[in-house]
Amino acid sequence: MNIMLMSPYADEIAAVVTEEKVEVITTGAGNPFKYMKAWKEADIKVIPVVASVAMAKLMTRAGASALIAEGGESGGHVGELTTMVLVPQVCDATHLPVIAAGGIADGRGVAAVLMLGAEGVQLGTRFLSAEECSIHPNYKEKILKASDLCTMVTGKRLGHPVRSLRTKFAQNYLKAEYGGIAM
């Protein structure tokens, strides 16, 4: 199970996971430290997303079972480091298995992060192009035709960054975000 820690229901979800003794959880969009003791006591394997060496070290000390080192090429929700910079540093900072994530879309990316020390990969956006994915065909086509400059990150100034296709809506949102929205 994956728990998005920015959710206003994170505390309730964390309690249910503990009660039900879910075997393995991944966490993202936040720091799971306050839940780690209860999850470990419930014998739950916890695999948090980390975007820095400091977080990797903290999660290692807290008893994580593995780490997902996710670079900023991902959905844009995490740190500033790229996957290729982050993965070897996290691998050097922990004895835990490291799963690489962020911008990995084919075998070349998989090979690269394995060479950097990761033991596995987590793919996200790549699966939107899968035949089994039921997204609208027009959206799927836009993703498949996207070039290197076709995405952008909005929401950084507001504390909730997200990567999306560079659409008129996203460009207008970014303009508004830096054009006078009160914080």
Task: Write structural notes for this entry.
The structure is a single chain. The chain has seven helices and eight strands; from the N terminus they run βαβαβαβαβαβαββα. It is of the alpha/beta class. The chain has a six-stranded parallel sheet. Strands 7-8 form a two-stranded antiparallel sheet. The radius of gyration is 17 Å and the shape is globular. The mean pLDDT is 91.
Instruction: Please give the radius of gyration in angstroms.
Output: 17 Å
On the 0 to 100 scale, the average pLDDT is: 91
Report the span from N to C terminus. Answer: 33 Å
Name the beta content range.
15-25%
Number of strands: 8
pLDDT under 50 segments (min length 5)?
A: none
Question: Helix tally?
Answer: 7
Could you spell the SSE succession in H and E letters? EHEHEHEHEHEHEEH
Short description:
The protein has about 180 residues and is of the alpha/beta class.
Give the SSE map.
Blueprint lengths: L1 E3 L5 H11 L3 E5 L4 H9 L3 E6 L2 H9 L5 E4 L12 H11 L4 E4 L5 H9 L4 E3 L14 H9 L5 E4 L7 E4 L2 H10 L6
What would the keywords be for this entry?
single chain, about 180 residues, two-stranded antiparallel ribbon, 7 helices
